[in-house]
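tl;dr need the bound structure. longer version: we got a ligand (S-adenosylmethionine) that a collaborator sent over and nobodys looked at where it sits. i said id run it. heres the input, straight from their email, havent touched it
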Amino acid sequence: MKQNYDSDEKTALQAKYDAQKIAFGPIMFQAAKALRDLGILELIKSRRKEGITMDEIASQLNLSVYGVKVLLEAGLSLEMVRVEDDKYILTKTGWYILSDELTRVNMDFVHDVNYLGMFSLTESIKTGKPTGLKVFGEWETIYEGLSQLPEHVQKSWFAFDHFYSDYAFPEILPKVLGNGVKRVLDVGGNTGKFAMICCRFNPDINVTILDHPGQLEKAYVNARAAGFADRISGVAINLLDHSKPFPKGPDVIWMSQFLDCFSQEDILQLLLRAKASLEGTGGSLYIMETYWDRQKFEASTYSLHATSLYFTNMANGCSQMYHSEDMLKLIERAGLYVAEEIDDIGVSHTLFKCKVKNN
Ligand SMILES: C[S@@+](CC[C@H](N)C(=O)[O-])C[C@H]1O[C@@H](n2cnc3c(N)ncnc32)[C@H](O)[C@@H]1O
């Protein structure tokens, strides 16, 4: 992470250039995506070091020279391509836009899930509502409508969600599921990915998923296909209804990439419900989240700050990718304590193992 956010040491020239990058950001984003999706970057990459002319790209891809020209010129300013003797060559940034899975997943998420809705971000800030969500439907939060979003939007949403958790899950399994764990409560368990990993990890483990009915349907299909139908069950629930207690007495309550879907007031209530479920049992609550202050790389912090605005405008209007101190204060207020913490899991996660105080 950039260690401090209290300095301003750019020259005026650099600052003005950076301001133009912001001013034209949405147009240049579309240019980068068009260069990727029209196959221009792929073709340039296939020519490696000798490069390829604009005319040849146009003819091979059946595009107008005009169209290829404006995109390639944008690509020069984006530093995605460079040009030598009229021949275009892919830069390192161009390679990342084309071939890096993390970048692709992020770009598709921005484009398919967020781009249209973000037009009303200011309104979301003023109203505390996810006003961008209306481009897809009339839900209070995106989670209620997730299974009804257009196919390509769902695909990008799930790819974004799964990319990050898929990398994180395998690393922490022995820590979370070792020591005779038998009953796992996966709060916000989505399509059952973690539940199935638990079942594979140890044949004695049974998992209950709490989530919206649309997500549970997908989880059941996946569980059946994997042969775990008898070990994975679900409770269809709107978790914002804090009058509904969590099932009592699991060995592990698992909340992965989940609490960022809620306001701080709601997180406190969810933690209190988790605590009530664990009271007197010796069980643990594991919270796996991406905190913007715990990142090793500026690129991660930047991505998390941007992702917060997805929550503001598209998801629910009130949550975000939190600072770890926000979460630690809520854990304390709920009467829990962090018994163990691990940073740098997967792409950018932190795991808090929480216990009930004076249990
Ligand atoms: C970002 S996903 C995380 C999924 C999974 N735990 C992972 O790590 O990949 C959040 C999950 O919480 C669920 N969720 C969010 N708000 C909810 C609510 N109010 N009631 C029930 N489920 C909710 C969503 O449906 C979704 O499956």
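gonna send this back to them w/ a short note. The chain has two domains: 12-99, 103-356.
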